Task: structure prediction
Amino acid sequence: MALTMQLFMLVLLPVASLLPPGTQAGEIIGGWEAKLHSRPYMAYLEIQRKGDTYICGGFLVAKNFVLTAAHCKGDKITVKLGAHNIREREESQQVILVGHQYLHLDYGKEPRNNDIMLLKLAKRAKLNRWVKTINLPHTKKKVKPGRKCSVAGWGRTVAWNNLTMATTLQEVDVEVLEDDECMYRHYNASTMMCAGDPEKGKDSAKGDSGGPLVCGKTAHGIVSWGPYRPPGVYTRLSTFIPWIQETMRRLQP
Ligand SMILES: *[C@@H]1O[C@H](CO)[C@@H](O)[C@H](O)[C@H]1NC(C)=O
Ligand SMILES: *[C@@H]1O[C@H](CO)[C@@H](O)[C@H](O)[C@H]1NC(C)=O
Result:
């Protein structure tokens, strides 16, 4: 995800215009295959939008709710839970259609801000050893810079100009950085957080847009955007807890 850090979602089909100029072929983005079912909250999102297919990550926060980035919205979204190899039909997998997409109301008002969306599943997921929810942080509880966290996803494992997608879940460690390390235009420290690979020169997180930034047992961020090089920008979940709780409460039967 040098990839996943980008502003736009990954396209499954090769689209030449999405490729940034001047990238190195075959550059490996530091990361590795995740241990089998070690991240049971991970969701693989297949998004149909205007005839194209995109993929995003997401994470299960309740039996019938997946959290992801607002820019992963689409005309139709299918969620795959309990997956490791998304090209195979594993017995652990549950494929569920999204019933409704709830974008944050302020998404789109300012560039890249409030990049968060709740997906209500058409039916509840069955929680078991392969499919579990992940905890969210407390309201306003900011993660301290220096904290080691991780990101996972099925995004690209190699260079920007190589459209090969991972078939198995990949993960990488990233460190939470000070806000001023993300001196990007449109970076907003109250709604976003900055994280990157602690080892300079290596490419940062891999995983797809919408996937969780996990610190300990808690999801603290959502992969949102960034330039081609790390650090990347994540939606700061602690800011959105009231919105998440209120939205879920309103929609629970
Ligand atoms: C893309 O990456 C894959 C996996 O590492 C590799 O097998 C393939 O040769 C690469 N393709 C190009 C065009 O570099
Ligand atoms: C940061 O985001 C918040 C929430 O959307 C917004 O109220 C605030 O105006 C933004 N700050 C800047 C400097 O854009």
About this structure: The longest helix spans residues 237-251. Residues 106, 110, 113-114, 188, 190-191 surround 2-acetamido-2-deoxy-beta-D-glucopyranose (ligand 2) (CB under 6 Å).
